[in-house]
Amino acid sequence: MKEAHVIVDRDFVIGDTDPRLFGAFVEHLGRCVYGGIYEPGHPTADERGFRGDVLALVRELAPTIIRYPGGNFVSGYNWEDGVGPVEKRPRRLDLAWMSTEPNTFGTNEFMDWCRAADVEPMLAVNLGTRGPDDARRLLEYCNFPGGTELSDLRRAHGWEKPHGVKFWCLGNEMDGPWQMEMKTATEYGRIATEAAKLMKWIDPTIELAACGSSSRNMPTFGSWEDTVLEHCFDHVEFISLHTYLNNYADDTPSFLASADLMDSFIEEVVAIADAVAARRRSAKRIMLSFDEWNVWYRTRRKNEGRTKLGWPVAPPILEEVYDMQDALAFGGACLSLLNHADRVKSACLAQLVNAIAPIMTETGGPAWRQSIFYPFRDMSRFGRGRVLQTRVSSPVYTTVYYDPRGTSELSFPMPDVPYLKLAVVDNLDEGTVTLFALNRNLTETLTVETQVRGFGALSLGEAHELHHGDLKATNTKDRPDEIKPASLEGVEITGDRVRVRLAPASWNVIRLSARGN
Ligand code: AHR
Questions:
Q1: Has UniProt tagged this entry with the keyword Hydrolase (predicted)?
Q2: Residue 322 pLDDT > 60, yes or no?
Q3: Rounded to an integer, what distance in angstroms lies between the CA atom of residue 371 and that of residue 325?
Q4: How much is the pLDDT for 407?
Q5: Does ligand 1 have an atom closer than 6 angstroms to the CB of 70?
Q6: Nearest CA to ligand 1 atom 5
Q7: Which DSSP string do the residues of 1-69 spell out, in sequence order?
Q8: Spacing, Cα 72 to ligand 1 middle (Å)
Q9: Residue-wise over 256-278: b if at least 16 C-beta within 10 A, else e?
Q10: Nearest CA to 257 among 3, 410, 440?
Q11: CB 166 within 8 Å of CB 205
């Protein structure tokens, strides 16, 4: 049996988790909107067409902020198409996903849905086929109280009060050739700066995220961030990051190690942003918005969204069925985000329903939880508070992670991957300390002894694990609970020391009560 040792101390803090770290993403893509969150006529739908069963699962998942309407989709989107009388809205070709967009769901419906789901909206503006003027007009429509053409248009459409959207993305993945009207870093940096200026002149309370690289493997990664921030450093609060972990190589140890490359990505972007600050002798710190992250590979390389499907409305594309090992890699990504809570102040699980999503639906039928639902729910429910530094001493393994880039593959030798990946959060208000622990050893139990200093004597609140004997097991409509959390037995606590045995290939949550200390 393998053994790991951990020390955490109440006084050694990484940072507070921003509530927006627990966000998700709804794009007009496949059945995410149509047949996902919105399905008029579904037995659980309300008078607005919002599926009640999906809303209940979203509330249980507990995302805090939802990015909308894309993604690649936003780079060709005319927001005006999605407001006003539904019968007058145009049907349009969506070149991002080779689909027909009916526009029966748009910005105002999204705002209502956010209210129903108890989440904050995050809007992206189209800096692909459109530009700063369009961004200015959308902001005026959404956030200006009234007395101007566009704010009065919103009121005439039935939304008297401004939507008050605080968080805005300046385009999407503008470095990618798949993007409608991709830009060079200089072109994008200029346009993002001008859009930011106009938007903040209308509403100085908003926060803006500039596009970073679409992935760490982009050939322009690094220089893209540097150039873009050189242009818009004074005008934005965030730079974005996107990562989709993959197991194309069918190599589970390397797949589970790949979340550690998210740690590298975050630290590299922080270094570049701070270098831009240093060149200006600026104390300002650009924060990170990890506004797309997930596991995605089965429905990706086939590029099935772009095949000639005959321009269908809401085709069932990108409907990745997640298995047990995906949930583990996904849990590793959650830990990377938590452990960088000082700089990653916003993050969005991509996406929410049906398209690479924790929630699946059958059109006209039921909704169910995928395996990745559970680590996200744990992170959002129990990750609020101060993330503590961890001193981890764990046995390690060696692997090589492969990641595709275009037609070539990049390989990343990973010589010292700790079997234990861990984050610890002091949930201040509740008097609870939560340990999130991933055992990446596929065959052996890992005994973990943690000293939790500074909280006095601890007692066990609750502990559970996500584990399945078959790493390829999945939840389906007919077997929706094949993978689900179970109680974690055998947690031993002596004073400030916690001893726990983690099953091979398992995600674990241990909640310690530190009340009265
Ligand atoms: O989330 C799916 C797609 O992945 C998004 O539309 C795009 O931004 C990214 O490439």
A1: yes
A2: yes
A3: 9
A4: 63
A5: yes
A6: 71
A7: -EEEEEEEEEEEEEEEPPGGGGEEE--SSTTSTBTTTB-TT-TTB-TT-BBHHHHHHHHHH---EEEES
A8: 6
A9: bbbbbbbbebbebbbebbeebbe
A10: 440
A11: yes
Predicted confidence at residue 409, as pLDDT, reads 76
End-to-end CA distance of the chain: 34
Between 266 and 300, the higher pLDDT residue: 266
All residues at 6 or more sequence positions from 294 whose CB lies less than 8 Å from its CB, including other chains: 244, 245, 330, 333, 349, 350, 351, 356, 372
> Helix, strand, or coil here: 248?
coil
Residue of 294, 373, 351 lying closest to 73 (CA atoms): 351
The whole-number average pLDDT for the span 471-491 is 97
How many angstroms separate the CA atoms of 500 and 110, rounded?
Answer: 44
Taking alpha carbons only, the member of 249, 332, 257 closest to residue 294 is 332
Residues 6+ apart with CB under 8 A from 56: none
Residue by residue, DSSP assigns 149-184 as HHHHHHHHTT--S-----EEEE-S-TT-TTSTT---
Residue ranges with strand state E in 351-456: 359-361, 367-369, 386-393, 396-405, 408-418, 420-427, 432-439, 446-453
Report pLDDT for 307: 57
Ligand 1 pocket, 213 CB below 6 A?
Answer: no
Would you tell me how many other CB atoms lie within 10 Å of the CB of residue 455? 20
If one residue of 77, 94, 172 were mutated to test the ligand 1 pocket, choosing by the most ligand atoms within 8 A of its CB, it would be 172
* Mean pLDDT for the chain overall: 96
The verdict on the CB of residue 71 being under 6 Å from ligand 1 is yes
- Other CB atoms within 10 Å distance of the CB of residue 105: 24
For the chain, give me the number of helices (H) and strands (E)? 10, 24
Structure tokens at 513: 């009560």
Give yes or no for residue 10 having a pLDDT over 80. Answer: yes
Between β-strands 446-453 and 497-502, what pairing exists: parallel, antiparallel or unpaired?
A: antiparallel
Residue closest via CA to ligand 1's atom 1 equals 350
Residue 410: beta bridge partners?
403
Confidence check: pLDDT of 302 > 70: no
Q: Is the CB of 294 under 6 A from ligand 1?
A: no
| Percentage of the residues of the chain whose pLDDT score is greater than 70 | 97
Omega cis (within 30) before 69: yes
Judged against a pLDDT cut of 80, whether residue 442 lies above it is answered with yes
Catalytic residues: 173, 292
Q: Which of 232-246, 252-266, 365-379, 401-415 has the lowest mean pLDDT?
A: 401-415
Residue 234 clears pLDDT 80, i.e. is over it = yes
SS3 132: helix
Residue reference for tokens 């938590």: 338
Tokens of 194: 């001008």
